[in-house]
Amino acid sequence: MSRVCAVSGKKALSGNRRSHSLRATRRKWNVNLQKVRVMIDGKPQRIRISARALKTLKAEQAAK
Mean pLDDT of all residues in the chain? Predict the structure, then answer.
């Protein structure tokens, strides 16, 4: 299963890890994915969603 948010489509970013001597080695920043049960078409389904998207959805739900 790939580390991609089901709502926003966010995925891992890559870049360089820099040592004190500025040597560059590759590294990866993963997305903060959470398994959440969400009602989709009236049925509860478990999806993997990023923490930022979950926070946004909760804020929209509270505003209603």
Answer: 94
Distance of CA 43 to the CA centre of its chain: 22
Does residue 24 sit in helix, strand or coil? strand
Q: Which residue, 56, 62, 16, 10, is CA-closest to 33?
A: 10
Q: How far is CA 2 from CA 5, 12, 15, 28, in A?
A: 9, 10, 19, 14
Number of helices (H), then strands (E), in the chain: 1, 4
**Domains in the chain, ordered, with CATH?**
13-63 (2.30.170.40)
Q: Rounded to two decimals, what is the model's pTM?
A: 0.79
